[in-house]
């Protein structure tokens, strides 16, 4: 998955998913404030598609 946090882009692997919360191990660290918006994208075919969004706890 690819995560866009503010202006930073990083990739990560989901390690846990339960209820409305996921945990992701990032390949590159991101500095962000709590409640920052996050866009979650996935590669489908030739391009990247938005598959979800959320906030940092």
- The number of domains is 1
Written as H for each helix and E for each strand, in order along the chain, the element string is: EEEEE
State the fourth-level CATH superfamily: Translation factors
Regions with little confidence, pLDDT below 50 for 5+ residues: none
Rounded Rg: 11 Å
- Let me know the average pLDDT: 92
Number of helices: 0
**Going across the major beta sheet, what is the strand order?**
3-2-1-4-5
Q: Just give the CATH class.
A: Mainly Beta
Distance between the termini: 19 Å
Please describe the biggest sheet, giving its number of strands, its sense, and whether it closes into a barrel: 5 strands, antiparallel
Approximate strand percentage: over 45%
Care to count the β-strands? 5
How would you sum up this structure, described in words?
With 57 residues, the protein is an all-beta fold. It has one domain (2-55): Beta Barrel (Elongation Factor Tu (Ef-tu), domain 3). Helices cover 0% and strands 67% of the residues. It contains no helices and five strands. It has strands at residues 2-5, 8-18, 21-26, 37-44, 47-55. It has a five-stranded antiparallel sheet with strand order 3-2-1-4-5, with no helix packed on it. A hairpin with a 2-residue loop joins strand 1 (2-5) and strand 2. The two termini are 19 Å apart. The relative contact order is 0.31. The mean pLDDT is 92.
């Amino acid at each position: 998955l690819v995560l866009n946090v503010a202006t930073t882009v990083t990739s990560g692997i989901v390690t846990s998913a339960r209820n409305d919360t996921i945990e992701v191990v990032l390949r590159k660290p991101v500095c962000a404030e709590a409640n920052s918006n996050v866009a979650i994208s996935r590669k489908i075919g030739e391009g990247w598609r938005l598959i979800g969004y959320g906030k940092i706890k």
